[in-house]
Amino acid sequence: MSYNDIVNAAKIKDDAIILAIESSCDETAAAVLKGGREILSSVIMSSATEHVRFGGVVPEIASRAHTSAISLTVEKAITDANLSLGDIDAIAVTYGSGLLGALLVGVSYAKALAFSLNVPLIPVSHIRGHLAAVYLVDKAIEPPFISILASGGHTAIIAVKNYYEFEVLGQTLDDAVGESLDKIARTLNLPYPGGPNIERIAKSGQTNISFPKMLKGKNSLDFSYSGLKTFAINYIHNNEQKGIEFSKEDVAASFQSAAIDVLVDNAIKAADKFGYSVITAGGGVVANGYLRESLALKATRKGYKIVIPDKKFCTDNAAMIGAEGYLQYKKRNFADLSLNAKANVPLN
Ligand code: KG4
Ligand code: ZN
């Protein structure tokens, strides 16, 4: 029998053991999940320190780091789960969005392993993985809900109607929130990755700098970060050029709240407007303490339930790919061995 025949005949199990692989940016990650929500292991190797001196991720360095880390990462995920390769029912892999060369490492590895084990290969969208991370924290949570997607490449307010149907209710018209935090961090001479460093210094700053309002029209749930970013960069450069002392901490605190308040407020507006009672969030920026506290406070005040993944499942990881992979597995959304990596994958 050919690989495709074997996969087409594969039985779908509720408690399937799924090996998930993620390599879209600078984290090489592998995880083993049982039944889509139980994490048996989660391993993350990061090449972040290799990118620090360049101030951002260098794609070529990321690809090389994935190549040397992938085997070890997958082996460790299987050992940590106390399983052997023969126990794996399917392999889920991020095929996009992300850096092509980086994605290809995970995709090629997953294809070879799926072929050699004769198990289905499940292509997973990185963005959907971020949204599915919420299933790892609350075993009972089910759609519908409103979700804030806030990462280095994407920023949106999404209605998750059921496990497979999504509607973008509002989104950034230009930069992503993570990208803008990274840019301001760089302008303040803080090391990469910028978001966590902005959060760190913001703790001793005041939100005393008024940033321009950026909501796009009264009824729109869209937002824009480029005006905010330019304002902050000009503020920093003008003060530096004139030799005026200013507080980096205040810039960080003011920028952080301006960038995040609009996300939280728009998610709540979306729940109000479309009648949702649960709000979730996913993506690297959701590791931000200010976002987490502010969402908890504002949503609870309105009587909405909030579910946010643990910080380690907000930034890139493979467990979230396994959670989304399981949903695709249940639908038999398998790829054949011609699966390719894609720089951009639409949400739907
Ligand atoms: O989801 P992610 O790990 O990768 C992408 O899919 O893009 O998100 C990375 C982004 C970066 O911009 C990083 O600065 C930001 O998430 N980030 C944070 C925090 N941790 C990561 N931003 C603010 N506060 C944090 N604690
Ligand atoms: Zn991500």
Q: Please, could you describe this protein's structure?
A:
With 348 residues, the chain is an alpha/beta fold. It contains twelve helices and ten strands. A five-stranded mixed beta sheet has the order 3-2-1-4-5, sandwiched between helices. The longest helix is centred in the last third of the chain and has 27 residues.
Q: Which tags fit this structure?
A:
43% helix; binds 5'-O-[(R)-(carboxyoxy)(hydroxy)phosphoryl]adenosine; five-stranded mixed beta sheet; 10 strands; alpha/beta; single chain; 348 residues
What is the number of helical segments per DSSP (H or I, 4+ residues)? 12
* Helix/strand structural class: alpha/beta
Average pLDDT score = 96
N-to-C series of helices and strands: HEEEHHEHEHHEEEHHHHEHEH
Share of helix, binned? 40-55%
- Main sheet summary: 5 strands, mixed
Poorly predicted tracts of residues: none
The end-to-end span amounts to 33 Å
Beta-strand percent range: 15-25%
What is the strand tally?
10
Strand order of the largest sheet: 3-2-1-4-5
Backbone shape: globular
> Compounds present?
5'-O-[(R)-(carboxyoxy)(hydroxy)phosphoryl]adenosine, zinc ion
Tell me the Rg in angstroms.
21 Å
